Amino acid sequence: MSTTAVNNDLVAAYSATNYHVLSDDGFFVLKIGQRSHELAHRFVLTDRSGATFITAENPFSQTVTAEENAANQVLTS
Fold this sequence. Notes:
Layout: H1 8-16, E1 19-23, E2 26-30, H2 37-46, H3 66-72
Antiparallel strand pairs: 1-2
């Protein structure tokens, strides 16, 4: 893994997390370090070669309520 200012326990927690991605036809899961066939398929459909996954949930890795997380999310395209 690359050098980072983020502590190893937090990097391990991020790596163990399932990142749920909402799409027009449901949702799929992204995992750090694992190829996503669903995402690759969407790249083909949209003529894209890359993407960035950003979430506003639990800012600075501090757990907040579901309501606070929902308020932090803004959908953009």
